[in-house]
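My main concern about presentation is that the manuscript never shows what a single data entry looks like. An entry of this sort, consisting of the sequence and the corresponding backbone structure tokens, reads as follows:
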Amino acid sequence: MTVAKTRRDPKVGFVSLGCPKALVDSERILTRLRAEGYVVAPDYGSADLVVVNTCGFIDSAIDESLDAIGEALEQNGRVVVTGCLGADPKRILERHPRVLKVTGPHAYDDVISAVHQHLPPKHDPFVDLVPPQGVRLTPRHYAYLKISEGCNNKCSFCIIPDLRGKLASRRIDEVLREAERLVRAGVRELLVISQDTSAYGADLRYAKAQWNGAEHATRFIDLARGLGSLGAWVRMHYVYPYPHVDEVLPLMAEGKVLPYLDIPFQHGSPSVLKRMKRPAHAEDTLARIRSWRKECPDLTLRSTFIVGFPGETEAEFGELLDWIEEAQLDRVGAFKYSPVEGARANDVAPHVAPEVQEERLARFMAAAQRISAARLATRVGREETVLVDALDGDTAIARSRGDAPEIDGVVRIRRGGKLPVGEFARVRITRAGDYDLAAVPATA
């Protein structure tokens, strides 16, 4: 018997801006909406309502968010706003007074309530609308695993604690169960994200919990051990160089966790780091890096840096160049300091002229590019395991253990058109560029 529908399923459009942590927030909201019978609309025209998840970290991100809200209003007219910029609703409403609702970051219940108010759900209790792993916005074979919200650090250039609050860790059993569901659903790579991964569990006093018949503490090393037992790639992001981070290196050397650390060093000058109020700024990071590479020679280090921080002198910038030359980081990103409303760094010292910032950024990235090319060149001739992300004709686009999606390089595999997307493959590296590698299947 066929039951006629009395009303079509309500459709919600979704625009997700900002970092991977915001992407996870979007996935959680979409999972809730799908469970209630909402359909995700592919474009503005087919949506009954649009949710825009914003970013408010720096001025360019704020402008992008405000423009996205304006576009959604123009193309659709019914818009709910959430995310980091939502922590300042006055700024949004001054520019876009027609939005239906503004909520702050990770305010899942408020977003769902706003959607209910303006687009009531059509509930069908007899249909399971959501797969066990929930709705994801990443490809099927990798997923971001958010382990905490907020941050306890007080970096002078950052307003994230004001936007997202203090550190709030998820219990380790909850995180590991989510990771299990993802791996069972076909995820091959788990990307661990937070504002400060190394501080995981500190707010819970490292509470213990049962998982798979054993007791685990809600702390960084126990999380790494648990995730490392699932058989997927485990990639650690946003790791601050606290002393206990050293404990994860043996797991990387054993192949339990990817030999990859994303550490936001931000600068190499002690005086600049002090003005930035960076945690662990007094650590001898160069000595730590040497020790890590001795323990795990294949370790890939990625980091981001700020050039032209208020008060940065030519001598301090020179210290940064010297630092990166000695550190020999594999993957590096950088941006010019941009004043963020509410950031204490705006007043710590006179600002560096924009043309000086631009010139220093170019010099810094030229050094980083040269180091990247030299380090990649040492891998030519090796056989490596890669994860295939996509196909382009007879070329497979993949990533090695040292490449996070979207922010690092890729491995282009010639004659790889028959390799299955979302699966691992063995390749032989044939050529290195500044940021990417070329390869052929290992059997070729």
